[in-house]
Design goal:
Blueprint: E1 5-9, H1 13-25, E2 30-34, H2 37-47, E3 50-55, H3 64-74, E4 77-84, H4 88-100, E5 105-110, H5 115-131, H6 142-145, H7 149-153, E6 159-167, E7 173-184, E8 188-190, H8 192-201, H9 205-222, E9 233-237, H10 239-242, H11 247-257, E10 265-270, H12 279-291, E11 294-298, H13 306-312, E12 317-320, H14 322-325, H15 332-347, E13 351-354, H16 360-369, E14 373-374, H17 385-398
Parallel strand pairs: 1-2, 1-3, 3-4, 4-5, 7-9, 9-10, 10-11, 11-12, 12-13, 13-14
Antiparallel strand pairs: 6-7, 7-8
Amino acid sequence: MHELKVLILEDHSFQLMALHQMLNANGVYDVLTAESVEVAQQALSRRGRVDIAICDLQMDGSDGLELIRYLAESGLAASLIILSSAERGVIDSVGSLARQLGLRVLGCLQKPASSATLNKLLSLYRQVSSEAMPSVPTLDMTELLTLSAASLAQCQPQWVAHYQPKVSFDGCINGVEALVRWHHPTLGVLSPAQFFPLIESAGLLGALSWHVLEQALALSASVRLENGQQLPVAVNIPPQLLMQDDFGQRVIDALHRHAVPASVLTLEIIETQDCQLDSRQLEALLHLRILGCQLSIDDFGTGVSNLQRLLELPFSELKLPSEFVRGMGQDGRKAAVVAGAMITARRLDLKVVVEGVETQEDLQALKDLGRPVMQGYFIARPMPESDLRRWVVEREQGGFAQLGVA
């Protein structure tokens, strides 16, 4: 097992010593300590990259924000834990900033930290690191950057749908979300973040979306659940696709082509300011809903006009993003946001799906709030079709007791 290297930035000598001892108690002995940002930067330049940086915010001189920006720009920390006596809202806002800067934030904690909490975060780091998709060196990506739009279009067979299961607290599989990966012959499996900008700039986002829709419907047509029903599938639809006059008819044609009932298909739409549908396009969505297709508003709460759009468009599902859910077991503010969204959904007669369920604590918090449908790494990561088929069989035979869901 890889021995973790951890940096602690803490200007209070007693708390610095206590954190050091807690790390030792959790089997972490390669610990760098610093009482100022300057000393932390010197330690990193001398000792190299760390697995985890534990960062205080309030201190004399440069505050923790300066170290966080330095870590993001230098790449000298794989993950970050923010630990401060600042207000809860300030700590969470710093965490959001760190994520925007590209850092992986394991936790945003108020002092004092406990050994048990640190142990959970260390375990989370080890789990995520062991399962993380290998990164592709920037230099190798030049092979993709030199491709023309026509050459990119010829790579379509390499755009393969992976599927992340959605489950309910009673142990039922409620369906899967199709999430595309690029199975490149030399670069390996690429995540959307690595190739979506390239696809979008080449004007191929629509072609990619239709390709994933076809794969998802083919999967649904071939998989029968234990109750005899076809597997429900959810597909992400970019707003610009909705604005095509033939969008609704193309979806209907695809359903007929795969002999799949409309009720198994959920179209997940990310709301943006640019998505302004005219009466014909709205009519097409209504036709799909009348046929039985489901319509989900994705990343609810992150757009500027989500509430208005809920009233304008015929949504049947509200989907809460991982930003609101991750860590809600320890954060009452996040739990309040999720509870409010679920109340809104119930009053609008909408189903709720919650993304980003990553820990047992998050699972328990959701159980206390009303038991919505869930997806997240704690349940299952996105997986290829062959792995999904095995997963479905195993879970239908064994149930979800091991997740604490049943």
